[in-house]
Predict the 3D structure of the following.
Amino acid sequence: MSSLPPLLSSMVKGPALLPIIQAETPHEAVAIAKALQDGGVGSVEVVLRTRQALAAITAIRTALPNLLVGAGTILSAADANACKDAGAQFLVSPASTPKLLEAMIDTGLPLAPGVATPSEIAMAYEYGLREVKFFPAHLSGGIEMLKALSGVFQQVKFCPTGGIGQHNLADFLALKNVFVVGGSWLTPANLVKAQQWSQITTLAAEATAIARQIKTAA
Protein backbone atom coordinates (compact mmCIF):
# COMPACT_ATOMS: atom_id res chain seq x y z
CA MET A 1 0.00 0.00 0.00
CA SER A 2 1.26 3.46 -0.90
CA SER A 3 1.87 6.28 1.55
CA LEU A 4 -1.14 8.42 2.33
CA PRO A 5 -2.16 10.96 -0.32
CA PRO A 6 -2.86 14.66 0.42
CA LEU A 7 -5.98 15.51 2.41
CA LEU A 8 -9.05 16.31 0.34
CA SER A 9 -9.72 19.34 2.56
CA SER A 10 -6.47 20.86 1.34
CA MET A 11 -7.67 20.55 -2.26
CA VAL A 12 -11.28 21.77 -2.08
CA LYS A 13 -11.71 25.04 -3.94
CA GLY A 14 -14.17 27.79 -3.07
CA PRO A 15 -16.94 27.22 -0.50
CA ALA A 16 -17.17 23.97 1.46
CA LEU A 17 -19.53 22.41 -1.06
CA LEU A 18 -19.18 19.25 -3.13
CA PRO A 19 -22.17 18.96 -5.44
CA ILE A 20 -22.75 15.74 -7.35
CA ILE A 21 -22.89 15.61 -11.13
CA GLN A 22 -24.72 12.71 -12.76
CA ALA A 23 -24.69 13.19 -16.51
CA GLU A 24 -25.71 11.07 -19.49
CA THR A 25 -23.20 12.71 -21.85
CA PRO A 26 -19.93 14.66 -21.53
CA HIS A 27 -21.67 17.71 -23.04
CA GLU A 28 -24.35 17.59 -20.36
CA ALA A 29 -21.71 17.16 -17.65
CA VAL A 30 -19.85 20.27 -18.78
CA ALA A 31 -23.08 22.27 -18.87
CA ILE A 32 -23.93 21.23 -15.29
CA ALA A 33 -20.40 21.93 -14.09
CA LYS A 34 -20.36 25.37 -15.71
CA ALA A 35 -23.72 26.23 -14.15
CA LEU A 36 -22.35 25.28 -10.73
CA GLN A 37 -19.12 27.19 -11.28
CA ASP A 38 -21.09 30.25 -12.36
CA GLY A 39 -22.84 30.05 -8.99
CA GLY A 40 -19.57 30.11 -7.09
CA VAL A 41 -18.87 26.38 -6.67
CA GLY A 42 -15.21 25.40 -6.96
CA SER A 43 -15.33 21.60 -6.56
CA VAL A 44 -17.57 18.87 -8.00
CA GLU A 45 -17.97 15.10 -7.79
CA VAL A 46 -18.89 13.16 -10.93
CA VAL A 47 -20.58 9.91 -9.92
CA LEU A 48 -20.04 6.64 -11.77
CA ARG A 49 -23.74 6.01 -12.35
CA THR A 50 -23.87 6.48 -16.11
CA ARG A 51 -21.99 4.94 -19.03
CA GLN A 52 -20.37 8.26 -19.92
CA ALA A 53 -19.17 9.15 -16.41
CA LEU A 54 -15.47 8.69 -17.15
CA ALA A 55 -15.71 10.71 -20.35
CA ALA A 56 -17.60 13.35 -18.37
CA ILE A 57 -14.70 13.70 -15.93
CA THR A 58 -12.25 14.22 -18.78
CA ALA A 59 -14.55 16.68 -20.52
CA ILE A 60 -15.03 18.85 -17.43
CA ARG A 61 -11.30 18.87 -16.70
CA THR A 62 -10.66 20.08 -20.25
CA ALA A 63 -13.46 22.65 -20.47
CA LEU A 64 -13.20 24.06 -16.93
CA PRO A 65 -9.57 23.78 -15.81
CA ASN A 66 -10.08 25.93 -12.69
CA LEU A 67 -12.69 23.54 -11.28
CA LEU A 68 -11.62 20.73 -8.93
CA VAL A 69 -13.13 17.54 -10.37
CA GLY A 70 -13.40 14.28 -8.46
CA ALA A 71 -15.08 10.93 -8.97
CA GLY A 72 -17.72 9.32 -6.79
CA THR A 73 -19.40 5.94 -6.41
CA ILE A 74 -16.00 4.21 -6.42
CA LEU A 75 -16.70 0.54 -5.70
CA SER A 76 -13.53 -1.26 -6.82
CA ALA A 77 -9.86 -0.94 -7.64
CA ALA A 78 -10.83 -0.89 -11.33
CA ASP A 79 -13.10 2.09 -10.69
CA ALA A 80 -10.38 3.94 -8.79
CA ASN A 81 -7.75 3.42 -11.46
CA ALA A 82 -10.10 4.22 -14.35
CA CYS A 83 -11.13 7.48 -12.68
CA LYS A 84 -7.52 8.48 -12.13
CA ASP A 85 -6.77 7.76 -15.80
CA ALA A 86 -9.77 9.89 -16.78
CA GLY A 87 -8.35 12.85 -14.89
CA ALA A 88 -10.17 12.70 -11.55
CA GLN A 89 -8.39 14.77 -8.91
CA PHE A 90 -9.91 12.96 -5.91
CA LEU A 91 -11.98 9.87 -5.13
CA VAL A 92 -15.14 9.33 -3.09
CA SER A 93 -16.78 6.00 -2.26
CA PRO A 94 -20.18 5.23 -0.73
CA ALA A 95 -18.75 2.49 1.49
CA SER A 96 -15.49 1.07 2.83
CA THR A 97 -13.79 -2.32 2.76
CA PRO A 98 -10.11 -3.08 3.33
CA LYS A 99 -9.51 -3.85 -0.36
CA LEU A 100 -11.31 -0.72 -1.50
CA LEU A 101 -9.45 1.51 0.95
CA GLU A 102 -6.11 0.07 -0.15
CA ALA A 103 -6.96 0.53 -3.83
CA MET A 104 -8.05 4.12 -3.36
CA ILE A 105 -4.97 4.98 -1.30
CA ASP A 106 -2.72 3.35 -3.90
CA THR A 107 -3.88 5.82 -6.57
CA GLY A 108 -2.19 8.62 -4.65
CA LEU A 109 -5.29 10.78 -5.01
CA PRO A 110 -7.02 12.53 -2.10
CA LEU A 111 -10.00 10.47 -0.97
CA ALA A 112 -13.09 10.35 1.19
CA PRO A 113 -14.23 6.76 1.72
CA GLY A 114 -17.82 6.22 2.76
CA VAL A 115 -18.66 5.35 6.38
CA ALA A 116 -21.90 5.10 8.35
CA THR A 117 -20.86 3.44 11.62
CA PRO A 118 -18.18 3.88 14.30
CA SER A 119 -16.60 0.58 13.23
CA GLU A 120 -16.19 1.77 9.64
CA ILE A 121 -14.70 5.03 10.86
CA ALA A 122 -12.30 3.08 13.07
CA MET A 123 -11.25 0.94 10.10
CA ALA A 124 -10.49 4.00 8.00
CA TYR A 125 -8.63 5.47 10.96
CA GLU A 126 -6.47 2.33 11.18
CA TYR A 127 -5.42 2.99 7.58
CA GLY A 128 -4.31 6.46 8.59
CA LEU A 129 -7.27 8.24 7.03
CA ARG A 130 -8.61 11.30 8.83
CA GLU A 131 -11.25 12.44 6.33
CA VAL A 132 -14.26 10.33 5.39
CA LYS A 133 -17.66 10.60 3.72
CA PHE A 134 -20.60 10.18 6.13
CA PHE A 135 -23.29 8.46 4.05
CA PRO A 136 -26.23 8.35 4.02
CA ALA A 137 -25.99 11.25 6.44
CA HIS A 138 -29.66 11.85 7.26
CA LEU A 139 -30.57 8.16 7.58
CA SER A 140 -27.45 7.47 9.66
CA GLY A 141 -28.28 9.97 12.38
CA GLY A 142 -27.48 13.27 10.70
CA ILE A 143 -26.28 16.20 12.77
CA GLU A 144 -26.81 14.54 16.15
CA MET A 145 -24.76 11.51 15.06
CA LEU A 146 -21.92 13.72 13.84
CA LYS A 147 -21.96 15.56 17.16
CA ALA A 148 -21.75 12.25 19.02
CA LEU A 149 -18.90 11.01 16.81
CA SER A 150 -16.90 14.20 17.36
CA GLY A 151 -16.13 13.29 20.96
CA VAL A 152 -14.80 9.84 20.12
CA PHE A 153 -13.10 10.49 16.78
CA GLN A 154 -11.61 13.88 17.56
CA GLN A 155 -9.14 13.84 14.66
CA VAL A 156 -11.62 12.75 12.00
CA LYS A 157 -13.37 15.19 9.67
CA PHE A 158 -16.48 14.35 7.68
CA CYS A 159 -18.11 15.03 4.33
CA PRO A 160 -21.80 14.36 5.05
CA THR A 161 -23.89 13.44 2.02
CA GLY A 162 -27.50 12.33 1.75
CA GLY A 163 -30.61 14.19 2.87
CA ILE A 164 -28.92 17.60 2.81
CA GLY A 165 -30.41 20.67 1.14
CA GLN A 166 -30.60 24.43 1.46
CA HIS A 167 -32.86 23.98 4.50
CA ASN A 168 -30.23 22.28 6.67
CA LEU A 169 -26.96 23.09 4.92
CA ALA A 170 -25.97 25.73 7.46
CA ASP A 171 -26.51 23.32 10.36
CA PHE A 172 -24.17 20.74 8.84
CA LEU A 173 -21.53 23.29 7.85
CA ALA A 174 -21.52 24.73 11.38
CA LEU A 175 -20.24 21.43 12.82
CA LYS A 176 -16.56 21.54 13.74
CA ASN A 177 -15.94 18.04 12.37
CA VAL A 178 -17.40 18.77 8.90
CA PHE A 179 -14.92 19.95 6.26
CA VAL A 180 -17.21 19.90 3.22
CA VAL A 181 -20.84 19.00 2.45
CA GLY A 182 -21.82 16.90 -0.55
CA GLY A 183 -25.05 16.05 -2.28
CA SER A 184 -27.28 16.29 -5.32
CA TRP A 185 -29.67 19.02 -4.19
CA LEU A 186 -27.85 21.59 -6.34
CA THR A 187 -28.27 19.46 -9.46
CA PRO A 188 -31.82 18.07 -9.26
CA ALA A 189 -32.70 15.64 -12.04
CA ASN A 190 -35.70 17.65 -13.23
CA LEU A 191 -33.59 20.77 -13.81
CA VAL A 192 -30.88 18.78 -15.58
CA LYS A 193 -33.43 17.06 -17.82
CA ALA A 194 -34.98 20.43 -18.70
CA GLN A 195 -31.54 21.99 -19.19
CA GLN A 196 -32.42 24.73 -16.73
CA TRP A 197 -28.80 25.72 -16.18
CA SER A 198 -29.63 29.19 -14.87
CA GLN A 199 -31.74 27.67 -12.09
CA ILE A 200 -28.86 25.41 -11.10
CA THR A 201 -26.63 28.48 -11.01
CA THR A 202 -29.15 30.19 -8.73
CA LEU A 203 -29.23 27.21 -6.36
CA ALA A 204 -25.43 27.12 -6.32
CA ALA A 205 -25.23 30.84 -5.57
CA GLU A 206 -27.66 30.46 -2.68
CA ALA A 207 -25.64 27.56 -1.23
CA THR A 208 -22.39 29.45 -1.73
CA ALA A 209 -23.79 32.41 0.19
CA ILE A 210 -24.81 30.12 3.07
CA ALA A 211 -21.38 28.47 3.15
CA ARG A 212 -19.56 31.79 3.17
CA GLN A 213 -21.79 33.14 5.92
CA ILE A 214 -21.02 30.12 8.11
CA LYS A 215 -17.28 30.47 7.44
CA THR A 216 -17.38 34.18 8.35
CA ALA A 217 -19.24 33.42 11.59
CA ALA A 218 -16.86 30.61 12.58
